[in-house]
Amino acid sequence: MLTQEENDLLTQVGPGTPGGELLRRYWHPVAVSAELTHEHPTRFVRILGEDLVLFKDKSGRVGLLADHCSHRGASLLYGRVEERGISCAYHGWLYDCEGNILETPPERNDAIMRSVKHTAYPVRKFIGLYWAYLGPSPMPVIPPYDIWVRKDGTRKITVRPVLDCNWFQPMENSADSPHLEILHQAVSGREAPANTTRGFIDDVESYDYHVEEWGALIKTRVYKNGEVDHHPLIFPNVLRVGNRTQIRVPIDDTHTWHVVVAFTPTEDGSIVEDVEDLPFSYDPPYKDPPDARYPSARNKMDTVPQQDYMVWETQGAVANRTAEHLSFGDRGVVLLRNVLRENIERVQAGLDPLGLVRDPDLAMIDTNLDESIEMERRGRPVGSRAGRAANTRDT
Ligand code: FES
Ligand SMILES: [Fe+2]
User: Residue 332 phi/psi, 5° resolution?
Assistant: First the structure.
């Protein structure tokens, strides 16, 4: 059980909040790159409680600017892009990708152009996504995790529905191993367990958790038949499970963008040439009506991701951790909270947090991807009650 202050510390993401300052030390995806085109050159982005506009100018440069124009606040989403940047639709103030004001129609106001800098954040295109960095200089690099940089395979992107709750709920879930055997016991195609309260929990001998210094909390699950599954929660907001990374980008305190990047290696290890943009798709809504919150909305429960969304969202827009009762089975969650708190404190002390990479030449980071892919190919051991073919895809 936490105090309200402790809960706020772990969950608030806005500018100036301790948690928001930690999250601003990392690069975050903000859009699918294929969706920013010459026909549709602007996209609204809300991330870490900030309203921004992503745009591609006619020279092909991509920028991320504060949404409200520095003149009198109209949205730059409706700006007109040109060779030099984006021009506000209202009176034509022109901005470049760095937030410099290049023109101030109807007059030329040099004083404003010299003294006003519009909020702008650096953007990188990487694995079919535009990524943004909202933190202080110097910028780190996007970490070269194997699943993101290996060249012997193909990637695709799935955008899940916007999650109507705080980002730390899916992350706690990713450090909560026992829920797999209980919550996900009844995915379609899988034979029901004998006891629905215990689900498939008795197939598991033990759960363990530890932190690795490259930036991950590793969950280990030892099954009674001797098989072992371990995969990383990559701090702070990525789950790598099987051949996928689930990236949970905080939109604000009560909404989270959930984008999945999957990697499929070639059978023979052959190298696949980089492509400009990756194939992508959107998952249909997980609840009805799609824009309502629990309890007005009814969550679907047919698939593992839908089941996860149900528990994440019904914990509340921000889970009330002042009213919880943790047990031994929640020790992964407790460890993750401690890691988050410690790293918030590291940032407050002027230090780099866990997993931050500054070396652009750092060798590929091994997340134990091959073993996870092999494990998923075989299917998780599920005892005698259900076959391997009915493997769940855990989160
Ligand atoms: S409000 Fe944007 S130019 Fe006036
Ligand atoms: Fe799950």
Answer: -65, -40
Reply yes or no on whether the pLDDT at 386 is more than 80. no
Residue of minimum CA distance from atom 4 in ligand 1: 91
Domains in the chain: boundaries: 33-133, 146-390
Rounded Cα–Cα distance for residues 36 and 55 (Å):
7
Note the pTM of the prediction, 2 decimals. 0.95
Half-sphere exposure at residue 303, Cβ-oriented, CA atoms within 13 angstroms: 10
Judging by beta carbons within 10 Å of its beta carbon (0-12, 13-18, 19+), is residue 270 exposed, middle or buried? exposed
How confident is the model over 60-78, as a mean pLDDT? 98
The fold adopted by the segment(s) 33-133 is Rieske Iron-sulfur Protein (2.102.10)
Sorting pLDDT into bands at 50, 70 and 90, what band is 187? confident
In the numeric block, which tokens belong to residue 167? 């980002």
Ligand 2 centroid–CA 37 distance in Å is 35
H/E segment holding residue 345: helix 331-348
Average pLDDT of every residue of the chain:
94
